[in-house]
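Researcher: Quick test of sequence recovery. Tokens follow.
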């Protein structure tokens, strides 16, 4: 009986791992989660992700993935997304910044995200069919 229970537990764990591995998007350029220390994200806590775009002509859909706990006190969150084109990084024109609001809950306090226990997940599309700026050619002196 104990061996059968161990076998069922192992099979269930393997099935969960395989299902989780099959949920990733093979076309995703980057899919990263970053835990915020002390569950306190301030404006000064900037997250930076370096993304290598190999085809500037292809359109991309850009999403913000966010998770909050039920302890979060607010019904929304504002996120400032800044994009810097490395080809022109020395100029201010190379950085584009846009502020996005993510609605997390209804006015009555009902969470809008998909929940599991006390964690609520959100995926917000903030740019669709977006084309990145091509890199400028490198000039030799």
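Model:
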């Amino acid at each position: 009986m104990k061996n059968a229970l161990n076998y069922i537990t192992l099979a269930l764990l393997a099935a969960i791992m395989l299902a989780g591995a099959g949920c990733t998007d093979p076309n995703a350029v980057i899919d990263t989660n970053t835990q915020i220390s002390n569950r306190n994200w301030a404006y000064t806590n900037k997250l930076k992700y370096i993304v290598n775009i190999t085809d500037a002509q292809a359109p991309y859909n850009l999403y913000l993935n966010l998770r909050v706990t039920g302890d979060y006190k607010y019904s929304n969150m504002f996120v400032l997304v800044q994009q810097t084109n490395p080809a022109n990084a020395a100029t201010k024109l190379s950085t584009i910044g846009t502020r996005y609001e993510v609605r997390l809950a209804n006015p009555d306090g009902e969470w809008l995200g998909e929940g599991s226990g006390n964690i609520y997940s959100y995926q917000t599309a903030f740019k669709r069919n977006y084309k990145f700026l091509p890199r400028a050619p490198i000039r030799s002196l």
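The helical segments are 2-21.
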